Predict the 3D structure of the following.
Amino acid sequence: MIGSKKNKTKNISIIGSGIAGISCAIRLKNEGYNVKIYEKNKSFGGKIDELKMMGYRFDIGPSLLTMPDLIEEIFELTGKKIDNYLNFKKKKYICNYFYEDGTRFNAPAEKKEFAKRASKTFNVSENELINYFELNKKKYDLTNGIFLRKSLHKISSYLSLETFKAILNIGKLGIFKNLSDFNDNTFSDKRLAQFYNRFATYNGSSPYKTPAIMSMIPHLEQHYGVYFPIGGMRMISKKLFELAVEIGVEFNFKSEVNEIIIKNKKAIGLVVNQKQIISDIVISNSDIEHTYGLMSKKITPSNVTKNEKSSSAIIFLWGVKKKFKELDLHNIFFSADYKQEFDDIFLNKKISKDPTIYINITSKENIEDAPVNCENWFTMINVPNNYGQDWSDLIKSAKKNIIKKLNKNLKIDLENYIDFEKVISPLDIEKKTNSSNGSLYGASSNDKFSALLRHSNFSNKIKNLFFCGGSVHPGGGIPLCLLSAKIVTDLIKEQKH
Ligand SMILES: Cc1cc2nc3c(=O)[nH]c(=O)nc-3n(C[C@H](O)[C@H](O)[C@H](O)COP(=O)(O)OP(=O)(O)OC[C@H]3O[C@@H](n4cnc5c(N)ncnc54)[C@H](O)[C@@H]3O)c2cc1C
């Protein structure tokens, strides 16, 4: 432990035990602060949770992990070896893709192998692909230090050589073109453009709106790799929780925060289950819109809380009494008309009749996640946010369309094999984590300036109030949530007490 003595007298209260809340707690406890987490649910992890039922285990939130080094960093800074807690398996093949025209493509993780295989399946040369990878790497290298690892809301973040370099190269970044136009211009084969357009969904956005700078997302997957945590994604929140408890972070479950107490423009504590708790610093890991609802009505919510939200999802957790050789851990069944699908989600606010289906089967890696000769299917489609729709009717028709598509692609009668079912709707996601309108990743990146339009990690109206998690800078998804925790810790460390 390297905590300073000065910090030992400072109390920090954190609202929520999502991945960002727990990571922030570990980082700050490690600096010597007294850290207490107040979580409304009966367990930790927020969206990173699991369900065990009838011999099946399902990860019920995120399923794809990249950049596990950001998790390792947290263990290391407390002097612990991650291998004693958490192990990751690097995937050799990232995802199985099924196209409506019958094309199948199993995407290798290694770049050269990918280019070789893709050039045999799609109308593209290996060199064209290698050039595309290099351009995406350049975009990431030019911007990650500025957009992802620092607060964007402090002047000091802009006064660096790094920022100057990015400004000089702004033309290469693809801020003024959308991702789909960029991919269409790069690849003559529409199937390959659709493959790369899909990465917009990694932060719940539309490839027809999100800027082409987002082509750096496949770079993260192909450069850093895709990993499976042994035991499932839930192990990430479980092991971070165990580490936090071990170093002395206090967790309070079934502890709903009703109010952030503000006095003389300073956050001075929380009302939890109607009881006052005084603290020196307050950090909210809850959705930013919900967080403003916890403040006095005199505090006007920042305009950015009204920005378009990322998409939501309907998830069918299916226990399937059959093994499918053609499926792996990650599988995608593409829609025939991708543009129509995203217009439906973001413009028409309805569920596409032919949605792209994602199936995550952890029993492919963890055989104990399903009974013998069975598989655990986490079957997800992207859908609009929750605006009070009648989800039960929508779920019924979505299920019919999903089954029809899977039956056609896999040449089976899937319903005969479904042994167990549980459905998760956008309303369920909203209720469980207070995520605004059931969005998966906070604000969408459907605006060219979205990186600059996310809420800051601190309040410029209220002193001693900070924000981490998927709905604030730098954004949603596990890696960015982990970075938000680091940014908040750095801001608190810099603060003059
Ligand atoms: C279905 C789904 C699939 C996803 N897929 C991926 C993926 O494959 N890869 C990836 O990287 N990311 C994925 N994500 C996104 C990722 O899960 C999130 O970005 C991330 O887990 C959010 O973490 P967070 O720290 O913001 O907190 P959350 O997980 O949002 O947790 C916030 C916590 O705060 C608590 N809370 C809220 N309000 C209060 C209150 N008033 N009082 C007390 N407690 C409160 C909540 O109960 C919750 O536990 C997915 C998300 C979903 C839902």
Remarks:
- The two ends are 21 Å apart (CA to CA).
